[in-house]
Write a sequence for this structure.
């Protein structure tokens, strides 16, 4: 009645079944590896190249005395920029070309073109929610990823001038019937 | 809303009765709105417009709650770089590059024509303030209570289910054994994070809406139950076969054998390992932060994103976890000594 009274040949059953499960799992893994990559959508393919990658003309000059932070970056030959990889229109990594595209990558490339004469001197890396520590740890020179200027943040990092004014809004289902009861004073983010 | 977004403070300020759910990424927020797990999501129009263009079911509601000026973030003290970036942004706007980029990327999606922001419309006047320690501790206190209830509920579920699974594996009937083997092996060999998503987004897709907290209790409880089952099973192995044979020969039913002979001895043997599992569960519970449970870690991440006081946020939350794990391990050591069978 209990397992220990049975002869040891009982082991063969489970091991055969285990082998079958193992084979099935290997087959699933093989299917995952062989699955065709998402096919390119022709409508997503921009016919005209994104603008604003030529850089400023005439070239700009900057005040970069020896030993300054800007001089170090200029000597290094490239600038590391944290951008979003997952926001359509503002910073999205194109899965076909591996290029990061959008409004903010454009600005990053323009900055690189202004500093080095080459838009590709901007190394665009993914900035996630742990974003500011990367700046403080010198992993990024700049972060251009929809960072709203707030007083508490200004205590920890420097901000450039404003390059975009976005609006804080709510999104709901179209058929939800939700409306906002006003009046909402248009105030600055705290 | 997403962690650290200015939408959190704005919504809390303007609509105190709104229940705010913080999810890891915008795409998760949209998913939650579509599934009906939340009524609405808040955020910058720029982050959301691109998704809205792809998802006809969703739309903006109401006017703008606040303006959110974007600036390039630069490490404090890199002043020559900051000056150069300001110079470049001014030129970017002046030579029409800003407008070209906006018209190419943003305008087709929002349908709104826009002109560049005034360079001085920033918060340059904003005085740097540092968030107080008291505010941080208040944030952690909320998370502490959540973590404690989450671990408590998951542990009760795990102990109960683990005991059942381990007992089923002792059964003489192969189908019964397999009903225990399959869940044990599945939950033990699947990443906890995957289970968390399965119980939130996965179940929502088939119409079963769980609150983040319930989903986290289920995921953590089932995951832990597999480990508990294995620990209890190892306890069974410490009991010699003779005991079982003796019980059977006394005429005890299989269930009575389990309840009166096997379990009392096995559980004593595994009190220590079960306690270790409790400590692990406390630590594993932090994964729930990714599915919008406002536990200790979520509160710390949120505080960090809002203030960027990283070392305070994560050293602080580490200490908070220690105040749970150290008593838990001391308690189990003490309990293991109390129930030890001296041979």
């Amino acid at each position: 009645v209990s397992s220990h009274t049975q002869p040891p040949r009982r082991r063969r059953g489970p091991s055969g079944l285990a082998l079958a499960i193992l084979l099935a799992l290997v087959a699933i893994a093989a299917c995952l590896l062989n699955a065709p990559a998402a096919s390119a959508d022709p409508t997503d393919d921009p016919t005209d190249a994104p603008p604003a990658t030529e850089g400023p003309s005439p070239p700009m000059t900057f005040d970069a005395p020896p030993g300054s932070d800007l001089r170090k970056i200029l000597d290094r030959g490239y600038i590391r920029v944290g951008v979003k990889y997952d926001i359509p229109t503002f910073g999205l990594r194109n899965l076909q070309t591996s290029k990061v595209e959008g409004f903010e990558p454009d600005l990053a490339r323009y900055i690189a073109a202004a500093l080095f004469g080459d838009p590709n001197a901007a190394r665009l890396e993914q900035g996630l929610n742990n974003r500011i520590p990367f700046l403080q740890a010198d992993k990024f020179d700049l972060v251009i990823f929809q960072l709203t200027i707030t007083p508490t943040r200004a205590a920890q990092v420097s901000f450039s001038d404003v390059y975009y004014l976005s609006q804080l809004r709510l999104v709901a289902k179209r058929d939800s019937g939700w409306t906002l009861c006003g009046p909402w004073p248009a105030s600055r983010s705290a | 809303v997403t962690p650290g977004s200015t939408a959190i403070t704005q919504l809390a300020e303007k609509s105190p009765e709104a229940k705010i759910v913080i999810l890891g990424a915008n795409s998760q927020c949209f998913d939650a709105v579509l599934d009906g797990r939340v009524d609405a999501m808040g955020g910058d129009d720029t982050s959301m417009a691109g998704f809205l263009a792809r998802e006809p079911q969703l739309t903006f509601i109401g006017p703008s709650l606040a303006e959110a000026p974007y600036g390039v973030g630069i490490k404090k003290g890199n002043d020559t770089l900051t000056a150069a970036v300001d110079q470049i942004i001014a030129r970017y706007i002046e030579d029409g590059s800003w407008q070209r980029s906006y018209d190419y990327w943003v305008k087709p999606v929002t349908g709104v024509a826009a002109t560049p922001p005034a360079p001085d419309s920033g918060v340059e006047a904003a005085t740097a303030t540092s968030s107080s320690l008291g505010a941080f501790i208040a944030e952690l206190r909320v998370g502490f209570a959540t973590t404690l209830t989450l671990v408590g509920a998951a542990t009760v579920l795990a102990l109960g289910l683990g005991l059942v699974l381990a007992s089923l594996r002792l059964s003489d009937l192969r189908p019964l054994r397999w009903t225990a083997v399959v869940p044990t092996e599945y939950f033990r060999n699947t990443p906890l994070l995957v289970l968390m998503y399965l119980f939130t987004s996965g179940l929502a897709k088939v119409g079963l809406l769980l609150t983040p907290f319930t989903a986290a209790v289920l995921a953590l409880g089932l995951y832990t139950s597999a480990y508990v089952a294995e620990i209890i099973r190892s306890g069974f192995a410490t009991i010699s076969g003779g005991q079982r044979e003796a019980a059977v020969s006394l005429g005890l039913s299989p269930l009575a054998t389990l309840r009166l002979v096997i379990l009392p001895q096995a559980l004593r043997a595994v009190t220590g390992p079960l306690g270790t599992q409790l400590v692990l569960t406390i630590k594993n519970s932090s994964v729930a932060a990714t599915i919008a449970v406002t536990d200790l870690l979520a509160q710390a991440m949120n505080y960090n994103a809002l203030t960027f006081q990283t070392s305070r946020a994560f050293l602080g939350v580490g200490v908070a976890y220690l105040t749970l794990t150290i008593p838990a391990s001391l308690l189990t050591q003490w309990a293991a000594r109390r129930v030890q069978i001296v041979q």
Summary: Chain B touches chain A through 110 residues (CB under 8 Å).
